[in-house]
Amino acid sequence: MPGSPDPEKSDRKAIQPPRQTVQQKDQNLVPQVPLIRSTDLLGDNKEIQIQHGSELYRLCLTKSGKLILHK
Question: Where are the residues of the annotated region Disordered (predicted)?
Answer without folding.
Answer: 1-27
